[in-house]
Amino acid sequence: MTNRIAELRKARKISQAELADGVDVTRQTIISLESGRYNASLLLAHKIAKYFGLTIEEVFLFEEETT
Amino acid sequence: MKLLKSNAMQDDLIRLGSMLGLSIYLVTKAGAGQWEKNMAVTGLWLVIITALLGFWQIWRDKRMTPEEKREAEREKRDERSRMIQDRAMRNCWSLEDAVLIIATIVFVFRNQPSVYSILYLVLVVRELACVATRWWLERKY
Question: Does residue A66 belong to any structural domain of this protein?
Fold first, then answer.
């Protein structure tokens, strides 16, 4: 599963720390999410999507959708 | 006492207390061999160092700013941190299993039934405890 977190964050000029504060996780978690080393739980994915005002599917891309 | 409110701290104190008691007993036990005494002294040093680290952490936590406390609390709640902790514990469990099995085999070949039978019993009890815990969790969730 890939995601557009870094792209969306930079487009809105939000820092990783601000995003981490916004969804109540550590900055390290945001870094790991953006680099693809960690997959968010459903709850965290929902929080991140809600933070950006988008749906989960618009933020997180499942493998079959990218091929 | 406010200090003992944390369950993790209570667990740590029980573990340290047990190790301390065992170490003191082994050092003072009549007829204890030099190897036993050396192991007990090593254990005592580990307990002392762990206790000092614990007190240092309590001292440091008391001096945290509200922002730092909030970050520390968030670190505990963070799902990635919890995932890492769970995986670390599972890996350590596997490592313990391997060490116990190897030790059992070694003592079987050394023909020391008093040791290998205890190690084997520990292995069996651990596996039964794991099965029971999984059964209970499956019912709960």
Answer: no
For B75-128, write each residue's pLDDT tens digit. 888 999 999 999 999 999 999 989 989 998 988 888 888 888 888 888 889 989
Residues in B closer than 8 angstroms to A29, CB to CB, are: 78-81
End-to-end CA distance of chain A: 12
Number of domains in chain A: 1
B105/A42 Cα distance (integer angstroms): 45
Whether A12 is covered by a domain: the verdict is yes
How close does chain A come to B75, measured CA to CA in Å? 6
* Residue A51 in domain: yes
Chain A: closest CA distance from residue B137 (Å)? 20
Instruction: Select from B71, B75, B80 the Cβ nearest to the Cβ of A32.
Output: B80
This complex has an ipTM of 0.81
Domain span at A20: 2-61
Q: Which residue of B has its CA nearest to A42?
A: B79
Q: Which residues of B touch A40 (CB under 8 A)?
A: 79
Per DSSP, the three-state class of A36 is coil
Residue B36 has pLDDT above 80, yes or no: no
In Å, how far are B62, B119, B136 from B131, measured between CA atoms?
A: 41, 19, 9
